[in-house]
Each structure stands twice: as C-alpha cells, then as structure tokens.
Amino acid sequence: MSVEMNKVIIFNYTLKDDTGTVLDSSENKEPLSFLSGSNTILPKLEKTLTGMIIGSKKNVKLSAEDAYGDYKEEAVQTVNKDQFPKEAQLTVGASYMANSPDGKQMPFVITEVKEQDITVDFNHPLAGKDLEFDVELIDVREATPEEMQHGHVHGPGGHHH
Ligand SMILES: [Zn+2]
Description:
By secondary structure, this protein is mainly beta. The chain contains 2 helices and 9 strands, in the order βββαββββββα. A hairpin with a 5-residue loop joins strand 6 and strand 7. The structure holds zinc ion (ZN). Zinc ion binds near residues 150, 152, 154, 159 and 161.
C-alpha cells in the first residue's frame, strides 16, 4: 500500500530502546512534522502514522533492520591524526562530518584516541538497536504548493526561512 504524498503529518513521539530507556521525546517540545512521501522519517513509522486517526495513539516496534540498520564493523575506521584540521578537538564522543567521495555529508563519532591513531565510527548512533515509538497523531493537513516545492514543512515544527 502506498503512502499518500504531500500531506503534512504532525505527531508527538517518545522513542525508547529495547530496554525501555527513553532516548528522545517531543514531550515539552513542539510536535514533529514532516511531509509525507519525502523520506524524512523511518518508512515503517511513516506508514503507521498515515494509517492512524487524528488524536489516536499507537505503539510501534521497529527492529534494527527497519530502524537505523545493523551495526557495521566496517564503518569503524582508524584515521591518522593529521587527517583532522589542527583546531579539531580530538576527544572521545566528539562528532564531526566527513565528505564522502560523492559529496555526501557523513557524520561520525570519535570512539578512541591514541597517539597518532583516531578511531572513528560512521554507524548511526542507533544502528543495531531495536526501537520502540509511542506516537500520537496530532494533525494531518494538505501541504502548501511552496512546501511541496521545497520538500519540507514550513511553520511550527518545520523549517523557518
Ligand atoms: Zn522551505
């Protein structure tokens, strides 16, 4: 079943890992909004939301495969200190962006610092984790022509230009 395109979907969420620890939540913040069919949120989560009635709540369990993918050992790499700009803070937990050969921005986190060797991890922080979302569908509205053109939502919870 295909998801209806070009709707603005506004929802609250609480994200938990498989031990029930809350990782992120829109509680006490603005609800999240996205343009359907724009590949903004996890496909399974989008599919669930687009099948809900406004005002209803649902619990969605996603395997790592349906969430941020498996943890890949090959995404952990060791690079020479000299590869970093001089002013970079080379501490464990620091995150930076690298440019892939095709010009994409690839975020990574430093996981180990030795003399000349810096271990970096390109895995998504939630890779390899089964996740659970508690979602509440707040509203669904038609996207404006401008939003469709930009491919994202404007206004509360979206982009501000
Ligand atoms: Zn825009």
